[in-house]
Amino acid sequence: EVQLVESGGGLIQPGGSLRLSCAASGFTVSYNYMSWVRQAPGKGLEWVSLIYPGGSTYYADSVKGRFTISRDNSKNTLYLQMNSLRAEDTAVYYCARLFYGGNHREYDYWGQGTLVTVSS
Amino acid sequence: DIQMTQSPSSLSASVGDRVTITCQASQDINNYLNWYQQKPGKAPKLLIYDASNLETGVPSRFSGSGSGTDFTFTISSLQPEDIATYYCQQYDNLPITFGQGTRLEIK
Question: Which positions fall inside the Ig-like domain (chain B) (predicted)?
Fold first, then answer.
């Protein structure tokens, strides 16, 4: 059974750092396209970052230079290192697998989300 | 960036009604369009991929259509458990972008 379990969220002061983890089971993270998607309280979904199987990484302009997506193949875990956090980064952060099936791509598995609150 | 414009932003309908949500892309996205359902406090769930393909296990009352820039999501007969917010999402180009969501309520 495929499962994604996020952890690492919490309350952090503006300017601080936090690392989110997403432990995967039922598939191999390094063989897949993996993403972070966030949702501010009462708002819609916002794509944050994507890592390819080959290791290429991509970021939304709103987090570029502050966030880093990575993975640990030995732990089958995806990470999001978040630095220089701002109040507008407050959101539930979801990890999700972006399944590549021929000529279509979709987020087929999602974690339960972890809440990050940036506030003094 | 490709902008995804969903309408309406909210919708109230009765059980058994046919419900339609539209999503318009700011440029041609080659049918690379997915639809998700999100219930309060839960992660999004994939319903439709590649504009019109029903994800495995999703009830057949859900359907999608469209091409190019204009897409439609339909629930043929609304059920109480369909109360949720629905999002379209494109993946033709990075950044991946979502519509702003349609909140569906029971009348």
Answer: 2-89
